[in-house]
Structure formats: structure tokens, C-alpha cells
């Protein structure tokens, strides 16, 4: 097998800024981080080489306009599965049968992970708040769960029970009552017995065999047999991420969670094998972005050799190798400060810090979806069992967004009550600013009440004359 060709960026080189920008741009949702097979399939479906964003726009608009027939058409074209309308939703008996036949060890493991996630997420919940000023006003902040949430669970190259746990459990911790799950109609998705068994274990009864952008659009706009949701969460490939972006505003979304990515920040204390394994763990998603940033130059060749050795033993070696060569990079910084600046510029989904003092390093990190400290905290712990959700912002969006938590499934509402005295105390400030903005109606709505010495409310109307009840009939 030929040597692995992974790009190297030296931050002291004259063109390093352009190279780093190019690396950063391929993280973005608008980038072209799709496999050659996906590009070929998109051209076959639409008859022209559309960009992922343009293809997703067409799919979403078509589903919005034509409903279930469009969903079934794209399912047949992209997933190569011809579904009849009655096959889209998984029947309750199928969920129960899958659960009854499930491996007891599998159920035991997922129950422990469910416990871990619920314990962590329940502890994060914001509580209702209030402020009272006696005789003047009351201010309240009230939280309520969303009514109906859609979970997208990818099922292309592999089945992902971890994604069900990391999305459904936070929603349940928040108190969401209606949870909808969409999985591609494949043996790794909507036809996977373990996935169906887990849905049953988590008490989810609405499960649909739908994948890709068409599933996102169906949940957002609603189609025959599937009512629209209030929010869509869950990771996916670039087409899924773009579809969530397309429907945002019509529904809420968690974040732009596209192709998986990791940045490993390492110094001379890092174990080359550990670094290599962390890079491969993201690359095997195919596509997956895997970057090492170091200021210890010998580590470049050491990790290169470790990658070659580990890839030779990997079941998905070809996929991981392709990702490493297309989307991976070794970045050599002149010093620790420059390495931290590079990490902040990339704002990665996962940041694994393998340095002598990871606590000091992380204090300087401004943007990352999730951070893993030290040699014994591989990203896989967060992916599967730790407690925080593995649904994280990708494509550099960690600059302004965060990973999924139970609080994302809750709405907050401000509730205010003022007395007459409380109104009068604040009235002059409100009237002044309202007039400054030319909104005299706003000013008048306060001014009238502040100057009114009448009753606080209209008196209750006097009841009409009550007729006497008829006398009871006498017994003879």
C-alpha cells in the first residue's frame, strides 16, 4: 500500500494563512465534504452536478410542496428503497418484537448509558426564577418543554444507537412528551433490530423509516402520516446538516452538526499511538476531518508512522485513509501560543488536548464543541457514554453555538405584573424613551395609566335579578 499522504501546514511559512483558511473552510457546512459516491448519486438524481446546498434546497422545497409522494420518490432515488406509505412508520408490534429479541447485554449497556446521560442532563436544567419588589412589581421567568421534537439518527455506513441515547435522553430530561425518530430505511437504520429495540426501551413509539434531507423536510413541514415537529435535532452528513439549515426558522434546530471533526493539540509528552488512534476515530466516519496541531516537530513523523501501522489493522482502513488524505492535516506551530491561536481559529467540534498541562491549555481555548483532557480521555468516551450529548457544532460554528443539552428542549417565557405604584415609579423612563423613538402610542399606554386616579379595573357588573327557584313538587 502506498504511503499515507496527509497534508502538512507550517505556520511559519509565508502561505500558511491561506493554507489554514483552506483547511478551515472545508469544515464549513457550505464546503464540499462529501464522498465521490454521493456526488455521483446527486448528479444521477437531478441530471446535473448540483452543489450539496442546491440539491438540498430542491429536496426540501419539493417535500414542502408535494408531501409524502416527494419523500417516497427521494427515498427510492437516494436510498434505493421503494417504500409504500404504510411501510414508512414502524409498527408498535415491530418495536416490541425487536425489544423482546434483543441481546440482554445490549439492553444492560444502554440502560447504564441512559442513566449516565439522564443524571447529567437533569442536573443542568434551568429553574423558574422570580424577582419581587413588595407593593410594586413581580418579574418571573418560566420554563416549559417543547411539545414535539424530531430526532434524526443517521444510518448510512453504520448503525448508531449512541445517537438515539444522546438525543432522546436530553429531550426526556427536559420533559418533552412527543419524540419522533427518523432513520434511513436500511439495515443500519430503520430496519435495524437493535435500533428499534432501543427506541422501545426509551419509550419512543413514533419511528419512521426515512433518511437524508427528505426526512428533515418531512419532520419540519409535515407529510401524510407524520405531523410536523417543533424542533429537529441530531447529527448527519452534509446533506442532513444543510437540510436543517434550510428549515431553520420554520422549526428550531440544535446546531449545524455536519461531518465529524477532531483537532488534537499535542506536545512532546503525547503518545504517538494515542494521537493516531484519535485521528483515525474521526476519519473512519468517512468523511471525517482529523487535524493534529503541535509545536513539537518530531511528533509529525512519529504520528505518521503510527497512522500507517494502525491503518493496516483497521476494518474500515480504506475509508479512513481517504478521509485523512482529503480532509486531514498536520499543523506545525512555532510555539504553544500559536498552537492555541490555531485551535481557536478552527473552532473544532472535538478538541483533544494531549499536553503536559491540559488544564492550562484549555483555559486559553475560546471555541470548541467539546474538549477532552489528557491521554486517557479519548473522544469515544463522549461519543458513547460520558453524559454530555455527542451532538455538537461542526464547521467552525462552535464560535457561536454549543452542544445539545436538555435546556435546548425548553422554552422560556417572561411573565410580569405591576401594581399602580410600581407603574408610576417606572412610567417617566418608559414615556421618555418611547417618545424618543417616536412611538407615542407606547407612551400614551403608560401615561394614561400613570395619571389615572380611578379604579384599577372596571367594577364588576351587578348580577341580574335572580328568579326564585320553583318549589319542590309535593308528594301525594
Radius of gyration: 28 Å
Provide the structure class: alpha/beta
How many helical elements? 19
Contiguous runs where pLDDT drops below 50 for at least 5 residues = none
What's the pLDDT, averaged over the residues? 91
Q: Specify the helix fraction band.
A: 40-55%
Principal-axis shape equals globular
What fraction of the residues are assigned to beta strands by DSSP? Answer: 15-25%
The major pleated sheet works out as: 6 strands, parallel
* Count of individual beta strands: 14
| Distance between the ends | 111 Å
The largest sheet has its strands arranged as: 1-11-10-9-12-13
Relevant terms:
single chain, 476 residues, alpha/beta, 6-stranded parallel beta sheet, 19 helices, 16% strand, globular
List the helices and strands and how they pair.
Layout: E1 7-10, H1 16-27, H2 36-46, H3 52-66, H4 68-79, H5 85-88, H6 92-100, H7 104-122, E2 129-133, E3 137-145, E4 148-152, H8 161-174, E5 178-183, H9 193-201, E6 206-209, H10 212-221, E7 231-233, H11 238-247, E8 252-253, E9 260-266, H12 272-283, E10 288-294, H13 298-311, H14 317-327, E11 329-332, H15 336-346, E12 350-354, H16 358-363, E13 370-373, H17 379-384, E14 410-418, H18 420-436, H19 440-451
Parallel strand pairs: 1-11, 4-5, 4-7, 5-6, 7-8, 9-10, 9-12, 10-11, 12-13
Antiparallel strand pairs: 2-3, 3-14
Explain how this protein is built.
This protein is of the alpha/beta class. The protein is built from 19 helices and 14 strands. The strands form 3 sheets. It has a 6-stranded parallel beta sheet, with helices on both faces. Strands 6-5-4-7-8 form a 5-stranded parallel beta sheet, with helices on both faces. Helix 4 (68-79) packs antiparallel against helix 10 (212-221). It is globular and about 95 Å long. The mean pLDDT is 91.
